[in-house]
Amino acid sequence: MNDIAKSTGTDLVDPQAQRIVDFLEHIGLPNDNIIAEQSERQIIGQNLPAYIASLPDEVKRDARYLSKFVVGAGFGLFDYSLNAIWNEVVLDLRKKAIGYGLDIFFDSAVGGKARDFYQTEDDLASLKDSVLLDTCRKLELISDTTYKKLKHILEMRNDIGISHPTNYTINAFELLGWLQTCIQDVLNDRPTEAALQVQAFIQNLKTYTAPIDSTTRQTIEARIAELATHHVASILRTTFGIYVGVDTDPQVRKNISLIAPSIWRNCADEPKYKLGIVLEGYNTNLHKEKYELGSQFFSVVGGNPFRSPNERTIIVDGLIDQLLEKHNGWDNFHHEAPVADSLASYIQEQKDIIPNNVDKLAKVILMCRIGRGVTYCRGVSPRGKGYYEHILGKLGDKYAPHAMAALAHYEIQRKLEMPVCREQAKLALETIRQGVVNARLLECLSYLIERIEATGKCVLDTHFKKLSSEYIAWK
User: Fold this and answer.
1) How far apart are CA 442 and CA 396, in angstroms?
2) Is 17 within the bounds of a domain?
């Protein structure tokens, strides 16, 4: 290229660019920091062709954004080039959102009453770029590292873009680095073979309205167990989204209920907790039908311990109240079990026990396990007994003192006046002891086990209070 250079200090600008600058000045418009200096454009000219040549043909074939980038960068309009590449990133992030599932994406991106206004693909354009980016990171559609890089590019694009007055000029190496980040980390991020299989599975699941037979189910479960955890997390999020969709075919929902437990078992804990937050969001935003279906999904997979802490506290507290009501009501042997089943679904491990309501939980579970003192079934609901022992066995060192202290409560003391109740109390304490390691707590439990059949007031002995004083604040 035969450039007739015109020197202004140390800067060199080619004649075509200088004509534009002179024209802007002639008509009274700002002309500084509009076109990059010749030295910066030379860096672009020396490096950009080699980078473009290194890209696969399928990436370049329909990449009009790259054409705009090259034209802008070659002419010195670096902010135009940055805007061109960023617009393509936004379009690609929207495609990722659509592929993920718009319902869950919008549930995560938009809160409150505004959520009702976001339903279709066209509504993605109403989201700010920062919200789109933040939500893609939250839902793991992009990695944390890619998110940080794109966040920086977005901030620079907003601060020094075409529509913002600034004295900052983009240098060539910055522009080339941003181009590489956008192409390699986002635009050239194509799904792996495993990801394509996952995508095909999800698409087929949405439309498969025939019942899944046992052979197919076993095949699906075996394939799921072979997938990387991030792919399993993607399947879990998407199947949950399909399940709670109000327009989902009932048979599709039935099929999901058959394979969802396997997906849940093979998934890491973090995506499960995130779904718990999504479920709480349905309730907060008054999406009643989705919330009910989501609660049903969590029951199917045994996921109630992964619901949000606020929800679990409220739900468990309500279930404890229901259980006590059934225990004190008519035909309690029959009516206790379903509530006990629901309550136990929230307490699979000791970590699932909520400190805020552990005193109430320990007291009511003990009351039900001790029973009502009748000889029939030794006073304890046969179907409920297993659930009570499950919960008592999870108390361990951390919560066993709460159960021992509950024995002193007047309601339990009244029960312990009956021989059958004292017999059952001993068995309950033995169940608790099986989950305890602490030597002092074992000594406390053994003290009660040895004496409670003779007298229920052994828990009120001065010796026992002194023995347990490090763990129970006696009044």
Assistant:
1) 10
2) no
Contacts of 107 (CB under 8 A, 6+ apart): 115, 278, 281, 282, 285
Q: Within this chain, do residues 62 and 132 fall inside the same structural domain, yes or no?
A: yes
* Domain that includes residue 393, residue range: 309-467
* CA neighbor of 142 nearest in space, from 106, 88, 207, 97: 97
**Is pTM, for the whole model, over 0.85?**
no
* Side chain identity at residue 86, one-letter code: W
Determine the Cα angle at 146 with ends 200 and 108, to 5°: 65
One-letter identity of residue 219 = T
Domain end (from 262, 290, 306): 306
CA atoms in the 13 A half-sphere facing the CB of 351: 3
Where residue 28 falls (left for φ over 0; alpha for ψ -120 to 50; beta otherwise) is left
Token pair 């074992």 is found at: 442
pLDDT (tens digit, 9 = 90+) per residue, 32-70?
Answer: 666 766 777 777 777 777 777 777 777 777 778 777 777
Q: How far apart are CA 469 and CA 451, in angstroms?
A: 19
Do 433 and 349 fall within a single domain?
Answer: yes
What's the N-to-C CA distance of the chain in angstroms? 94
Q: What is the DSSP letter of 183?
A: I
